[in-house]
Amino acid sequence: MEFADQWNWVFLAYAFCYTVLVTYVVSIAARISRSRKRLGEES
Amino acid sequence: MTPREQTIERPTSVWPWITMGVAGTVTFIASMAVGPDAVQGQLSRIMYVHVPAAWLAYLAFFVTMAASAMYLWRKDLAWDRRAASSAEIGVVFTGLAIGLGMIWAKPTWGVWWTWDARLTLTAIMFFVYLGYLALRRTTTDLNARAKRSAILGVLAVVQVPLVHFSVVWWRTLHQPPTLLKPEPIDMDTSMLVTLGIAVVSFTVMYVAMMFKRIELARLEDEITEMQQTADVPIAGEAVTAPALERGA
Questions:
Q1: ipTM attached to this prediction
Q2: Which of B42, B45, B72 is nearest to B155 (CA)?
Q3: Which mean pLDDT values do the consecutive 10-residue runs of chain A (43 residues) have?
Q4: Between chains, do A6 and B28 touch, taking CB under 8 Å as contact?
Q5: Which domain holds residue B121?
Q6: What is the dihedral of CA B82, B136, A34, B66, to 10 degrees?
Q7: Is residue B12 part of a domain?
Q8: CA-CA distance, A7 to B62, in Å (whole number)?
Q9: What is the pLDDT of residues B101-140, one digit of tens each?
Q10: Which residues of B, range 198-217, sit inside 8 Å of A by Cβ?
Q11: Is A24–B42 a contact, with Cβ atoms under 8 angstroms apart?
């Protein structure tokens, strides 16, 4: 396999990994923010 | 100030977010700084995220089991929240381990997926814990939900050793364990140190995620409790009970 091809696979793996992690962390932050807002509105 | 007002007013800590960012950055820098493998070349860099992701899946499901057992013993919903938070994070890391494994498999094995014992058992584990998360959405009764999911949380952990030792017990395409094995680790020191840094960083990231996910679980439970205790007619005001005739 060509040297550049190997880096393409590494790039794909890291892009996938960090996209999943960042998306999940942002989803936790968004759900915390929404829940706090709902508690504030309904209490 | 009521407990609910305290929850809303309580300042949310930023340290877990910062810790997650630092842990992710450390892993990335360490895995790009180390040299390539003599056989796999640059592809070996995928190991520094694939192995920690798989390790965290094991750890998260073990924590789910321990917290579920604590709930069944103490009947304290705080343990249920810990179990559920860890299970959700575990599902994310299992999905990550499977996805990264597929990306690594294509250039090295020539296929994205094969029905190998390790891959198949990991996929089953992923779907069982997705089922655990689905089970939690079947009722709004917090105690019933906690009891049902705690039983599954304790039973489902049996898959973790099955997945880990599948490469030892069966002849598989997947390589044997890299770290958690009785024999001495045969890996170049620089690669081993980098893998160690990545595993520790991902574990720190898991702990930081747990802090935030548990905070979210507590808020969600408060919303559920608030909705259950609210003075709302069960069937709505438009529904009236039918008049029963005497002697019927």
A1: 0.93
A2: B72
A3: 85 98 97 93 68
A4: no
A5: 49-226
A6: 10
A7: no
A8: 35
A9: 999 999 999 999 999 999 999 999 999 999 999 999 999 8
A10: 205, 209, 212-213, 215-216
A11: no
